[in-house]
Amino acid sequence: MPPFRSTLATKVFLAFAVLLTAFALLGFFGAKQLGDVGEDLRRITEGHLSLARLAGQLETSQQNLFRDLRRGLDERDPKSRELILRIAAAYFPEVIRSRLDEVRSVAERRLPKEKEATRAAFYRGVIEAVGRLRVEHEELERQIERVLGQSDELAITGARGELDGIERRLRAELFSLGEQIHQETDHAALRADADEKQATLRLAGLTAFALIVIVFSTALVSRELARIRPLVEFARAVSRGDYAQKVPSVGSDELSALALELESMSRGRQEREQELDRQRDELERAYHRVAELKRYHESIVESLRAAVIVTDRDRRVTSLNRAAEMRLLGQRDQALGKLLEELPLGRALALQVGPLAERLTRGGALSLSAAPIPIRDGSEALADVTIAPLEDANGAVLGLVVALEDVTEAVRTKEALIRSERLAAIGRMSAHVTHEIRNPLSSIGLNAELLDDLIGDLVSKDGKPSASAEEEARAICRVIGRETDRLTDITDAYLKFARLPRPQLMSWQPAELLREVATFVRRDLDANRIKLELEISESMSELELDVDQMRQAMLNLVKNAKESMPEGGTLRLAARESEGETQLEVTDSGVGIEASDLDRIFDPFYSSKPTGTGLGLALCQQIVSEHGGRLEVRSLRGQGSTFVIRIPTHRPGPS
User: Fold this and answer.
1) Distance between CA 272 and CA 202 in Å, rounded?
2) What single string gives the DSSP state of each residue in 565-590?
3) What H or E segment, with its residue span, contains residue 640?
4) 263: in domain
5) Structural domains of the chain, count
6) What are 512-549's pLDDT values in tens digits?
7) Same domain, 513 and 551
8) Which residues, including other chains, have CB under 8 Å from residue 69's CB and lie 6 or more apart?
9) Torsion sign across C-alpha atoms 91, 92, 93, 98
10) Quick check: helix, strand or coil at residue 224?
11) Which DSSP string corresponds to 222-265?
12) Mind listing the pLDDT tens digit for each residue in 243-295?
């Protein structure tokens, strides 16, 4: 029996049959893999990205709602509070319910399409989370309804606590939902990437098989299959990702079908890669948006005027904002990593609230009002302090958050207001007292004058004037007159203090004012063996002053300085300008002031001298305050005193 010999046509047929089989497998597995990748992409676009977007919108609406609720609860006026709360309750809950419905709708649409148990469980978890969020928001709406119309501050405070609890639970639930969405998105992206790699490997394997068949067929029928070479080159270009190549033109029907198949494969792969690139770009943009949001939140904390310090569980400083760096702790790299108790601020807080380690276990926030704290320059400031544990979504304590708001100027302003009100009350009392005693004083003076006129008629028993009796009577009258003048001076001082006129402001050079005061007091100081020194800058800005009042204040300070140096000494008048204010200083080398008296020396009627009225420094304080400034004193017993008048260089006129 002769051996079987296949014809060239048979070999070509068999070669093409094998080749077509290979490409059929390639098309089948490619289509299947493309379907898997397409399903992954639809899962990401229709499910995960939509859920992530809605979760972000839900978080923003929720933050806006609680921001308006806090602003409403903090409002003192009941009508304003109710208006703000009703607006918040009318708008944001509707938006939040809409977002929750959209999240649930997305999850319910995707749930029937998921055959894998873990993916179906994810969407069921999303639906359950939406249910929990809806329950919490319904509770929140009930709390808002209870607060509306409330005027009892205790009830409002309790409602604020309930709202804070609901907010924490909502944040925790929303954070957990976001984490699930992000994790599932990451898993979906990884699966899509794995499917792509698997498809590439299968396509590469099948393409290699096809090339082997082509090479074998070419070796058998090189001349007939020469026209297939362009198709092979095209297939190789597609496998390299070069989609710019065009399908070569061939003459036979079989080769034409093969060319069309290759072209279809090329388009499918190109479209799939473009879709993957687009989805990758979407994920990158989403990642950048999240990163930008994180930077935005960090920027907000960094720009706060309040100092914010965060520690870990070991109470080591992990972060601080610019206010904490500039005002409290110094260079950031020097404070990071240190125990909070190793820093002056931490030691001061521990003295006031106890061991800071206990704040990690007790839970809840602790607040201090106007607490003294050390600041960077070594001085001390007053701050409202809040110390709270930093917790994660599960309530585990991660560290401490310390927030400090500088209220030094606010406390000083409040104290100045109290002092001003007290001075006003005392002024009214002084005016009343003065009015009551002026008439008796006038009567005493008038009678003293009459008595002086009648002294000339005094005579002795024998009818002759008695010189001794006359002289004695005149001496008594002179004493009465002096005492009357003294009481009149006192009442004038009371009236001047009680009825200090509004300053009549005009532009004036501080240097010229000090020279006038120095000229006026120089002779008196020389007589008391006191050396006068002037320290004046000639290039100072003009001030808006009532010159007569400010001159009176300076003369009162000079008079006090002179009386503190009965044995003589040195008195220095100085004027300088710095940081938007002008400073007028009166410094003496006298006996100084007791530390216990420093807080009282500006109180009306307080005096350490037996003959003083106690109104001199109070009047100075009132004059300086009327000019928008403040009067300060530094003194050590036995080392002298310095009184400083600080007046803003650019000050608005009196209201």
Assistant:
1) 15
2) -TT-EEEEEEEEEETTEEEEEEEE-S
3) strand 640-648
4) yes
5) 4
6) 999 999 999 999 999 999 999 999 887 888 888 888 88
7) yes
8) 85, 88, 144, 163
9) positive
10) helix
11) TTGGGGGHHHHHHHHHHHTT-TTPPPPP-SSHHHHHHHHHHHHH
12) 666 666 655 556 666 667 777 777 777 788 888 888 888 898 889 888 888 78
pTM: 0.34
- Domain carrying residue 485: 413-498
401-403-408 Cα angle (round to 5): 160
pLDDT band at 334 (very low <50, low <70, confident <90, very high): confident
Q: State the Cα–Cα distance between residues 618 and 494, nearest whole angstrom.
A: 11
- Residues 599-616 have a mean pLDDT of 68
Q: Which two tokens stand for residue 230?
A: 């362009």
- Cα–Cα distance, 135 to 159 (Å, whole number): 18
> What is the full DSSP assignment across 20-51?
HHHHHHHHHHHHHHHHHHHHHHHIIIIIIIHH
- Residues 518 and 562 sit within 8 Å (Cβ to Cβ): no
User: Which pair of structure tokens corresponds to residue 104?
Assistant: 């649930």
Give yes or no for a contact between 368 and 385, defined as CB atoms under 8 angstroms apart: yes
State the DSSP string of 92-127: HHHHHHHHHHHHHHHHHHHGGG--SHHHHHHHHHHH
Note whether residue 225 is domain-resident.
Answer: yes
Distance CA 400, CA 390 (A): 5
**Listed residues 439, 468, 498: the one ending a domain:** 498
Q: What is the DSSP letter of 317?
A: E
Among 12-16, 127-131, 604-608, top mean pLDDT goes to 127-131
Task: Mark which of 448, 480, 498 sits at the end of a domain.
Answer: 498
**What is the chain's length?**
655
CB-based contacts of 55, cutoff 8 Å, min separation 6:
103, 174, 177, 178, 181
The amino acid at 111: L
Token pair, residue 189, equals 């992206």
On the CB side of 101, how many CA atoms lie within 13 Å of its CA?
6
Token code pair at residue 338: 């240190």
Residues in a beta bridge with 536? 575
Cβ-count burial of 312 within 10 angstroms (0-12 exposed, 13-18 middle, 19+ buried)?
A: middle
Token match 């473009």: residue?
A: 274
State how far the Cα of 367 lies from the Cα of 359, in Å rounded to an integer: 12
CB 535 within 8 A of CB 572: yes
Residues 114 and 200 in one domain: yes
Residue 2 located in a structural domain? no
